[in-house]
Structure formats: structure tokens, C-alpha cells
Amino acid sequence: MANHLYLKRSLLLCVAVTLLAACAQATPQAVSYWPTEGWRTSTPEEQGIDSEMLADMLGAIRNERYDIDSVLVVRHGHMVLDAYIHPFGPDQRHTIHSCTKSIVSALIGIAIDKGYIGGADQAVLDILPDRSAANLDANKEAMTLEDVLTMSTGLKCRDSYLYGWRGLNEMRASEDWVQFVLDLPMAEEPGIRFEYCNSASFLLSAIIQETTGTSAAAFAEKHLFGPLGISDVVWPSNPQGINIGWGELRMRPHDMARIGYLYLNAGQWDGKQVVPAGWVEASTRKHVSARTLQNGYGYQWWIHPSGMYMALGYAGQYIVVVPQKDMVVVFTSDLSERQFFVPQELLDDFILPAAKSSKPLPENPDGVALFESLIKALASP
User: Three-state SS for 319?
Assistant: First the structure.
């Protein structure tokens, strides 16, 4: 089964690359409004999307009984699909798991821009001068903030699913999580190899708190969430009061889409540069090859060979940014590990090919009626 899923996903990857390459010359339309107060809606055809193909996707979700809670599609700044599967609804917050990492990355970029941190090339131990570290050697002294952002720390983390989350559980059982991470032995030279490490993402949150003097949540409320109109999020902290940097953030799907739309627009929002454009560019290009999920990894973002990039979270949480099609796609889910890639397959099979033109398509009343009826059906018990 695993080999079958891998082969299927490889085929879908090739299809997606071909589709996106075909429209690589497309450029985002000029922003006519900003969804700070709410998203403007549109029929799919008005934004160049085939409503019948989206209806086919919704039918597949219903017929296959996938544990997907919501799926959103934003094209040219307009919400063309806003579907929720009962019992989940639009006003509910959803745990976005490791999509949290991409938001923490944005906060690091803002903190650098505001002078709290010297830069991504700064050594981690220099950023935290009041901390000492066990197992100190030349490799640990050379570990930079960029190495942490790209999960190429060289630390012996052992806190991914490959290790049964062993290192993560050990960190959570320790008295001082930051010290635990800094004290880890080095397995290799930093900056060389991708090794998924939740502890590294937690360290980013700790760095924000120790350099700015405020929690990542409070920093985000002032410099990221507030400008975007995101409110009422829930972000748990560890026993020392440091927000969980690798996950556990809870927000609504519309707010997840705002994060994607901010990055689609190079960090600009309503005339203000919320995240530096250079940081968005650096964050969303491949810095290191990743053996899992997508082809590469940036600054806490997964990088697809086609040029689109994603924030991905456990159980099927997706924020997908497709610059070539001026599109943002959001999935929230409660999928099993075996079905984690179902949203990717729906994206490749239905959503990307449905975006047929950068200009409006001919009206399709029957297609829209079917599309809307399926949205209502999925929302019903």
C-alpha cells in the first residue's frame, strides 16, 4: 500500500508540475481590496475557475468520506470555495499543527526587520548570550538561525515520527525546554542535511520571546495578526510561558487563508509591508532537500518543484500558495497518517486544473447550482 501511494503521489506531482509550468507566465492581478474585515466572494467562473471541477472534488470528499473539515480556495483575492464538512463550521477554530511553524518563521522575519535579531546568519548561541550549552563544540558554535529555520541544525533531535517522537517527549518532560534543546549533542555539521526537528521550531519561539521581551503570541498580535484582521486565536505555551513553536496554534480557516494571501502578495497588506518582501522570498525558496513531503524546505515552509509552497500540519492541515495561479488553498482535516496526502491529491486532481484561465470563464449556472448544492450537503448532518 505504501509503495502504491508513493507511486500515485509521484505521478500526481508530475501532473502538477506540468500544469503549473504551463501557466508560469501568469502574474497576480492587481489587488482591488484587502480582506482585513472579511473575504469578498465570487462564483468560480468569475475568477477563471471551472465550478464543475470543484463540484467533482466536493463529491469525491463526500463519497470517499474523507475526514476533511474544510476546504477554501481564494483566486484573485476572492473566496470562490468556502466549504465546511459537518460538524465543523466556519466560526470554529481548528488546530493547525505544524502550519504553526510557518507563522513562527514570519515572526522571526519581522523581528529581524525591527532590529531585535541581527539576521538569519547570526549564531544561535550569540542570539542567546545568557544561555550556556552542554556538549559544546565547533559545530554547535557554528549553528546559525538559518540552520534552525531550515531544520538543518545538525542537532541530534530524534523528535520526528521516524523516532516515535522520542526527543520531543524528552524535551516536554524536561524542566527547561530551551536548555534541553541547546544541550543536545551535535550529530553532524549544521547546514548540511535536513532533519525534521520540532524542537528547533520551539527554539524559534523562544528566540522571539528572549529577544523581543514578549511572547510570540503577543508579538504576532501586534505585528502580524492585528494588521491582517486575525483575532481570537489560541496559542498554548509550555510551563515556562513560551508559546509552542512547532504546533498547537488554533485559528479559523479564513485566517489561515489570510496568512497565505499575505505571502502571495510578498508580505504586503493594505499598503503596509507586514513581513519584509525579502524574507518572504527567502522563506519560500528551496534551501535544503527534504526527503519527506515536498521536494525541498525553506524557512519553515515546504517547497514544491513547481514554485508553489505550503505550510503543512499533522492530520492534513494545508496552507498552499500558488503564485503562478494567483491562488491560495486551505484544507483543515482530521486525516489518518495513511491519508495525509489526500488534500494534495485533491489539489492536483481538481483545484489546479480547474483554474483554467486568469480571466473570467463563461457563466455556468448549472455548474454553480451543483457546486452550491454540494457545499450545503456537506455542511448538513
Answer: strand
Query: According to the model, what pLDDT value does residue 28 have?
Result: 55
Cα→Cα distances 187→104, 149, 336, Å: 25, 17, 31
**Lowest mean pLDDT segment, chosen from 6-15, 81-90, 129-138, 150-159:** 6-15
25: Cβ–Cβ under 8 A, 6 or more apart, which residues?
none
Closest CA to 265 of 90, 28, 10: 28
Give the helix, strand, coil percentages of the chain, each rounded to 5: 45, 15, 40
**Domains defined for the chain, CATH in brackets:** 2-93+227-379 (3.40.710.10), 100-216 (3.40.710.10)
Q: Is the pLDDT of residue 12 over 50?
A: no
Give the CA dihedral 377, 79, 368, 315, nearest 10 degrees: -40
CA distance 185 to 74: 44
Among the listed residues 176, 172, 175, 197, the one whose alpha carbon sits nearest the alpha carbon of residue 186: 197
Residue 250 DSSP class: E
C-alpha closest to that of 78 among 33, 21, 24: 33
Asked whether 85 and 379 are in contact (CB, 8 A), the reply is yes
Rounded distance between C-alpha atoms, residue 321 and residue 112, angstroms: 23
d(CA 53, CA 19): 15
Give the pairing of strands 317-322 and 327-333.
antiparallel
Residues 32-73 have pLDDT tens digits of 899 999 999 999 999 999 999 999 999 999 999 999 999 999
Question: Nine-digit cell at 318?
Answer: 494545508
Nearest alpha-carbon partner for 323 in 285, 350, 295, 290 = 285
pLDDT cut 90: percent of the chain above it:
87
**How far is the first Cα of the chain from the last one, in angstroms, to the nearest whole number?**
32
> pLDDT per residue over 312-361, tens digit each?
999 999 999 999 999 999 999 999 999 999 999 999 999 999 999 999 99
pTM (predicted TM-score): 0.92
